[in-house]
Amino acid sequence: MDLSKVSFISSLNYLKRSQFCSSGSNPPPINHNLGYIPFYEVYADFSNNGIIWAGEWINEWTDSSNTGQTQGFVAQSWTSTSTLTISTQGTAYWLVYLDYGDK
Amino acid sequence: MDLTKVVQSSSVNTFKNNDAWVGTKIILASHSAGLNIETFPINLGHKPDLLSVQFKSPNGGSPFGSSQPANQWFRIGAVYPTSADYLPYYMSFYINGNNVVLVARAFQQNTGSADDPNITFGYRIVDYSVF
Fold it and tell me: Does A98 contact B at CB distance below 8 Å?
């Protein structure tokens, strides 16, 4: 059988969306337990106004007082081979992908 | 809302992972006042289609307020030196032809009495293409 003619071959390494995709405020650590560092995406609706930013709210820094500045929000996230942790203001959206082939 | 459409739209529905580049690089000591940038080109051998680029700091910390532990893989963040006396390095990357160029950036307000120490950080690049 010539597998090159098959449009989808699962024996090849490929990327597929996992079940660890959701949203919420102050999400607990997400235990994906994949055993490898996954491809993942984290976005955030910082102000809960329906605008979802790709991790960082790039804006002009403004003086919040005469002693400091206010930085744009950042959706922080980090992962191990078992757990994705997210720390952000507002509502977080996250997607963890299954990286078949375990690269 | 289907956020997979935000990442990249495609007429086909998946990506293939072609290869991975995992290793460490060293941010060298000795910086001057002002903006300090160090770059680390990684040659992929071809122009990438979709990349996952992550960094790992040997020490914990975050420039954005969270208590990120050490040796976790992150996309947005900084590599921290062991001592709080030294500056964190904000990490980013850009693509230049066949190269992914990792970028470490710190803004030093004044020159201290001692140079920053060398810092070894981890990088992990996975290259995907439309399958």
Answer: no
